[in-house]
Amino acid sequence: MSETLKVPTMAECAAEGRQPEILFWVGSAGSYDDRAKKITRAFVKILNKANVDFAVLGTEESCTGDVAKRAGNEFLFQMQAITNIEILNAYGVKRIVTACPHSYNTLKNEYPQLGGNYQVQHHTQFIDELIKDGRLKVGQETTFKGKRITFHDPCYLGRANDVYEAPRELLRTLGVDLVEMKRNRKTALCCGAGGAQMFKEPEKGDKDINVLRTEDAMETQPNIIATGCPYCNTMMTDGVKAKEKEAEISVLDVAELIAKAQNL
Amino acid sequence: MQYLPNILFAIAFIVGIGYFTKNVKKLIRNIKLGRDVDVSNNKSERFKNMAMIAFGQTKMVRRPIAGILHLIVYVGFIVINIEVLEIVIDGLFGTHRIFSSIGKPYGVLIGIFEILAVLVFVSVILFWIRRNIIKLKRFWKAEMTSWPKNDGNFILYFEMILMTLFLVMNATDLHFQSMDSGNVISQFIAPWFSGLSEGTLHLIERSAWWLHILGILVFLNYLYFSKHLHIILAFPNTYYGKLTPKGQFNNLESVTKEVKMMMDPNVDPFAAPAEGTEAAMPEKFGASDVQDLSWVQLLNAYTCTECGRCTSECPANLTGKKLSPRKIMMDTRDRLEEVGKNMDTNNGEFKDDGKQLLDDYITREELWACTTCNACVEACPVSIDPLSIILEMRRYLVMEQSAAPAELNNMMTNIENNGAPWPYNQMDRLNWKNE
Ligand code: SF4
Ligand code: SF4
Q: Is the reported ipTM for this assembly greater than 0.90?
């Protein structure tokens, strides 16, 4: 899996004296986590296919500070934020797209007070726009046609920012059989990773949150659990494993589904 | 002697209203113990929220059964209270059904009241069954013991009694029954009392009348001690509710100042504070007690109806963790009341009692179990934000006490050193491109 991706960096663009249309904010998970890196690559393939003029910060990108803020460390958050904002502003960034709802929320909602004002989109919103603008063509006759797919709403995309429909629109364009869990959209259950839980053991209880959420999903008897967040992806993948269902149910990001449907 | 009832009524009325006013003052004082926040913006949006959520009950009906029953009790409560106006005037001036002189409309009005009274009565019975016979899970969680549990039932008994008294009062009122207009329900209750002498009927009518109004005055004063306070506070609380996206957590200005100073190479960190500026008394970060919370958060605590909708959607609570967002609100209110009582006994000054909200009420285990998923905020029918209190207390633990769980400290050290929550080299950030 090493067909070359076109991934220009902001530094390269600046050297060439041009301003890309959008900045793709990869995020820490998307950069380092083995599972999330696949999502990053899938999204870049879509960007390449649609000839989107984009760039990444590459080694100049640093954690948004989302986890630090939610763990209660406002100092660390603001240091991260201010450092990132200095770089983003130096490059004159106006539009940001990210595949991580946590980065999306932080960049969109929490950076403005610290001097970072950008138009921020989640990758599902951006891809949806690409399709609507005719820049990306997805036919209904895909490998996923008729497959039962349920969408798990990431808290930081859904409740936190009221984005419920963009990912679903994308799934519909694939001609899939979209089935909703009982708890969906506003009442969707968290995967268990938010608020810095991803980085610690859960408190004592009688069940893990990701297992409960996987049970929600399993009620819909899906072939695929789709989501739009690298953390949710990890949690749901682990949940499916805990239920020993990995042979029947795969957990995929919406971007991966779109990319696969196009044989990218 | 002729004026005795009027005088007694006036005394009861003044005492009832007076005690209530006293407690309202206390309530306002306690809420003001919170830190100031600027919520003076977006007035029109705030009014709209109040109209929709508190007055229009839009969030209540998301759970249709409870929502509709609640709507009936709520409408009944507001509308039947018009009758209280008449009772008060009659009581003070010794008149009888003063508004009946308006004729036909009076009958229509009382007719509506009577129908509502029956609907309220039935709804309240159903509520009671849900709580005590069906035992809906959210009413039987760990924090719903003793007072909170009884409180919920007392309110229901109160309503049942008040509605019964209202109907009995109408049924035994010969003058009213003889008007034969508006007695849509009470005409069927009146025969139960047939065979009693006119004097006895009058006695029953008067007793029901008195008990009804005294009951209302007692109920009014019960509010301050009860979750039922929400019938008043839901209005300001929805008005001051959060307007920004739920995912947006507030920015700590005081931290911004320090961080900017730390990161600005031109600032001499050892320079004496400039003349005239506050000698840098470091502000406390986060909250360990109620006074560290904002007054809106304290208003939240008094507004909480203990309905448990938040807790019933909390992923941590659903998986058996100790965290319950409802308990966060109840603890905050209990502690605030304790602080208030402390001030009452110490001439208005708070004397350190060696207790605080953190640890004595809310444990760290609860705070660290939160996924910040906002399910509680979304579920609350009166715009309460339990998550903001959890975050404020985490801030205290991390920034004032460096008391985060060890794994989180590792994660934060990683961010400090290499800009990612994992121990990877920042120079490897783009490696995914070639993998
Ligand atoms: S934000 Fe925290 S307290 Fe509220 S529902 Fe989610 S996990 Fe529970
Ligand atoms: S915080 Fe809101 S949802 Fe939770 S118990 Fe109180 S009123 Fe009900």
A: yes
